[in-house]
Amino acid sequence: SSRVIDGYVEVRISDTGIGIPKGIRERIFDPFFTTKDIGKGTGQGLAICRSVILDKHGGNLMVESWEGEGSEFIIQVPLDANPESEAGDPDDSEQQEVEDNELQLQ
Predict the structure, then answer these.
(1) What global pTM score does this model have?
(2) Alpha-carbon Rg of the chain, whole angstroms?
(3) What values do phi and psi take at 100, rounded to 5?
């Protein structure tokens, strides 16, 4: 799902898998962390995603997970693409574009 909240575009991606065990949840965004066998994963995927979203776009990347039920990744990116520009509400055309894109994602 997607929505606009507090100056951010928020996208939530969820699954109905086994969830992420509480013991490793805090480490999944760490570089080189993997639960895969040696040689089967680099542990870079989520670390790179987090870096791009936080460092390059000034956003947030979070996860919520329920063991035995699934997980949900939450991506938030500021509507203001230039963090150094003046703060303020997006004009009507920008807001409409976000709403149109939001409908396409659903």
Answers:
(1) 0.70
(2) 16
(3) -65, -45
